[in-house]
What does this fold into?
Amino acid sequence: MMIFKEVSTDFKFWRFFLFSLVLVGPKLVFALLFFMLPKIIIQDYGEDAPFGIYVSIAPLMIIIFLFCVQTLQNNYDPYDLILLGTAIETTGPIPMFFGMNIVDFVFFIIIISFAEALYAPMINVFTFNFTKPGREGTFLTLSAAPTYLTMAFAGLLGGYLLENYYPESDDETH
It folds into this structure.
């Protein structure tokens, strides 16, 4: 309880926590991939559609991109890379504006995978640079709360978007 009191009265923690809340938006884009894409692919391409293959592209691309962006991560400030990565991630849905087909899905996945590889590892580095010595674990634990908030938003938003803008039967919006 003493650690919680110490951290909760730390101004740096609250600044960091607000920064973590800002990351909910870009993380929401990534979370929507797993919440919405399977339903869209099954609806458009049938029950036998290999949506698992398309969704598994993201983690594989992140691993590949991690090797590509590693030199950037060594040479640039974590905060700058977080800003750049989140900006790129928020542009991820743009290919979906041009159509709902496999090519656009793959471009969406590539964009958000690159962005995740660029900024997600830097969040931990930024956290360790921001905290008091000995409180890194506490900051990491408490700063994970926005991740769960993202999942809640993704479920609600994904359901709303699918229900209202991607109906099961064809109409003027689909």
User: Anything to note?
Assistant: Residues 61 and 81 are 18 Å apart (CA to CA). Residues 25-165 form one domain.
